[in-house]
Protein 1
Amino acid sequence: MKKLLRTDKATKKKICTICNVVVTQPLNHIESKHLNMKFPCSYCDKVFKGRLLLNTHVFRQHRDQNKLTKALGDSAPAKYD
Ligand SMILES: [Zn+2]
Ligand SMILES: [Zn+2]
């Protein structure tokens, strides 16, 4: 994969080389804007364009189920790496 991010020497901020904007969540930005990755929710039918959006959704909407999954321990399949 070609370099999608560069670091601004002066500000030390990450800049997307495709859209030339400062990105605060580089991975999330690349995945959602440029890789068209989809992040399906494992608790409902919703699909999100970014890891961060999915995480926020799961945290807000499925907190209880989330606890349940965690309670199952390591035997539960790891959804996120
Ligand atoms: Zn970009
Ligand atoms: Zn959901």
Protein 2
Amino acid sequence: MAADREDVEDTTERAGSGGAESGDGSESGGRGPGPRAYQADGITVTFDARVCRHAAECVHGLPAVFDTTRRPWILPSAAAPEVIAEVVRRCPTGALAYRLADGAAEAPDRPTTVRRTSDGRLLVRGELRVTDATGDVRETPRAMLCGCGRSAEPPYCDRSGACGEHEG
Ligand code: SF4
């Protein structure tokens, strides 16, 4: 799975901090913490920079839609909603999510699965409710959790342990 890739890109140091420029898709959510929404006919994509760990499934999977050199960096009008949804589901951390125009959000995997990568991350998919060290609760169909105990943002992986050391 590409979440194990070593060619990790820093996609959202840029993408997540950009301004709310207009484009084919409209962007909302402000500059504060919390997900931003990017809308087009048929789909709304949301992005939560706080949990993105730059596995870059999005930019590799659909560069016409996910382009960190552009503002807005997510352009949901650039592909069919079903195609975007398929790529969003590859995001291992759940930083990306979507809702289709008919109201359908991503259906969580059943049964819930947990997979440990070779470098120690725990990739979890299912109907998840994750509580972090501050008590913040996040409901998500996907999460990348720390498997080495060295994360400063438990239970999420922050790439500071063995997984981070392997990344160039
Ligand atoms: S796939 Fe998800 S975690 Fe990876 S860079 Fe894109 S938004 Fe971030």
Protein 3
Amino acid sequence: MPVLQLKRILLALVVFLYLPLFLAAQGAKPVIVHAPLPGVKPRNVIYILSDDHRYDFMGFTGKVPGLQTPNLDRLAKEGAHFENAFVTTALCSPSRASILTGQYAHTHTVVDNAAPAPASLLFFPQYLQKAGYQTAFFGKWHMGGDNPDPRPGFNHWESFRGQGVYYNPTLNINGKTVAYKDSTYVTELLTQHAIDWLKGQKKDKPFFVYLSHKAVHSEFMPARQDKGRYKNIQIQYPASMFMTETATSPKFTKGKRADGSQYTFNTKDIPNWVRAQRHSWHGVDYMYHGQTDFDRFYQDYLETLLGIDRSVGQVLAYLQEAGLDKETIVFYMGDNGFSFGEHGLIDKRHAYEESMKVPLLARCPALIKPNTKIKQMVLNLDIAPTILEMAGVKKPTQMQGVSFLPLMKGQPVSNWRDKIFYEYYWENAFPQTPTMFSIRTDQYKFTRSQGVWDIDELYDLQKDPYEVNNLIRSTEHQPIAQKLNKELWDWLEQTKGLQIPLKPINGKKNDHLYKGTW
Ligand SMILES: [Ca+2]
């Protein structure tokens, strides 16, 4: 080989090897897409994400008698229902960052709703673009504070600042600000824009749509046509709602108390933070500092959810009309759960089931058999690797999730994960919930509250699905507690999670106990 040619080859090799380092030093990491996975025809994907929709408030589950969600029910009936889908942090921004990056919160570092998303993060739609997809984002982004500007990975972008509003939203559409009037309802607007964009797509490229609703985040506001629809619905009070009741607690009389007679209630070993949170912004005795009451809150949530259900129906109807409904995969998922009175709490953040568990449905007749029930535990971290595998893109090495495509196809999977991990980092704005780490298997959940003098928790989920019998002091359960504790800290150590990210605090306290103090 001539010397000059060899030099050129060596130079090209040096550039190839060091270009990623150069780009990383600039803050943006290169998106490396390897050769397509063999035999994969990239599939059209629609990913619909709702906000704070808990896992069981859907018509087909029967949890809320009278609640009607025909379109979510249809997804479950014609596709797959993941009965054990979880988020690794039950909070808007951290969970959204985990969905987009396939990473835990302590890895992507968006540990709360105020933390900016570092420029070095890679979002899975960036890989889809490289693989030839047309990609579009509609709705709530919520990472990086108040900035509605376009983010990497999307050919088309429509978003709003922070949480957004239900009525008359202002959107940033590809960098341009557009204000909507005349009682425009955000769920309907985003859905219509997503469908309009789909209509404009040519069939020579696969598409990916990320439809990210504001609903059903509080303060709940239903579409006008849904207001009052559940005025007379029978409200369900969970069995654990009354475990922390005190003499001054409001009497909840409008709804029906769940029958807890078959469970053992251990009222002695309830964490102190749970008792205290009952009378706080996020507790049933002093919800939003007394600005709303539980029964009204419950009704508004259900009515707001109807707009989400209709959105799913409109997307499915469009796909059918366009002849795309057999081959396109439609996902529906919640970004975190929501307590409605369990343990005397409302909201998410904590590690109880109703907070960390989310609805996850997927429909694609060409891929998924009707009425598929998936029992294995899947995570928000798995969304990115799953969608990338369907696009023929090999999982990038920084992603910590696993593709659940084989589970959807009904293929035998012998080595699926048998435990999941959970993390939540204390926020100054909502100080009633401590930092906590959790490990959950199909049978047990072990939760450590970090940085507070309080009792930790161990539940046998098979005997005690509502987590009302804390076994942390049980002699016979000491070996399992010890084992889970070790696995929890091994996970944190192995994934570099031992450095708890601290955030500076710049304002006075705002909770009702210490308001106005530094
Ligand atoms: Ca949320």
Protein 4
Amino acid sequence: MPLPLLTRPLLCRPLQCRPLLACLTALLLLLGTALPAWADFVLPPLPYGAEALQPAIDATTMTIHHDRHHGAYVANLNAQVKDNPALARLSLDALQSQISRFPVAVRNNGGGHWNHSQFWAVMAPEGQGGAPSEELLAAINSGFGSLAEMQSQFNQAATARFGSGWAWLIRKSDGSLAITSTANQDNPLMDLPGIERGAPLLGLDVWEHAYYLQYQNRRPDYIKAWWSLLNWNEVNRRYSEAVAT
Ligand SMILES: [Fe+2]
């Protein structure tokens, strides 16, 4: 690759300029290898307007939750790339299944980025989320007896999560469905002790930042309202993908 114009020895003899050229070239090479990594992880836009999930979730909560909380996870994860260069070679998905290799800051912020990315996609404006597919409904009935029973067990897991965390419906490697819950920003893809692993079909954020402005301490009310936003079309897609892999 030709050197940029600024590094060319236009105003001095070659021997005089050699140290300067070497320094400039080294600087350019350094910048050239460092810059791409800083931009690896990107905050995805909301797939709908911040006000689109009202009345179940208000626009202010959505804006703060997405722009500031999720935005901070992305920024903090990118800040970890310098000290953990292996991050620059991993997709966000691939990172989850080998998170045990990395320090807790990567676990928290990498998990936060993945969890919230799936969270926005698993919601839709009320009335636009579709319904469970025949295949998914059969799996739910097989695993829980009924859709209502699955929702009841999910609500129990989401309500009982002490402090901050997530509730999940997952498809395990044996093909069965299960309800599980993770603390903080952990998720069922992570290779960590105590995690019930599986393909997440839907995950609900029960951190207070997800609901406190509107619901204060009434987490069960938030969970109940959240079901009206469920994007079953996305859950169906995830189930089909999990079955195929
Ligand atoms: Fe959140």
